[in-house]
Write a structure and sequence with these properties.
The protein is mainly α and about 70 residues long. The protein has one domain (about 5-74). It has 2 helices and no strands. Helix 1 runs antiparallel to helix 2. The radius of gyration is 18 Å and the shape is rod-shaped. This is COX assembly mitochondrial protein. InterPro entries: Cyt_c_biogenesis_Cmc1-like. Keywords: Disulfide bond, Mitochondrion. Pfam families: Cmc1 (PF08583). Belongs to the CMC family.
Length: about 70
Amino acid sequence: MHPPLDGHLHSLDCRAVIEELLKCHKENPLRKYLGVCNQLKRDLNKCLQEEYLERRQRNWEESQRLKEAARNIK
């Protein structure tokens, strides 16, 4: 399962893969079930995973910064 594929939620790289996958699904309505678009799906999963890890790292760094700021208030 992946997050919503709205373009504004993802990087330019992932948006390009999303567009290619949607185009493949549109052009191959039956063959998509036979794996015609599987490589694009794998590419999308990889791109979304990289985005997730980057976002998780940024959030962790921000939480550490906020914790440190809270400790310094006393």
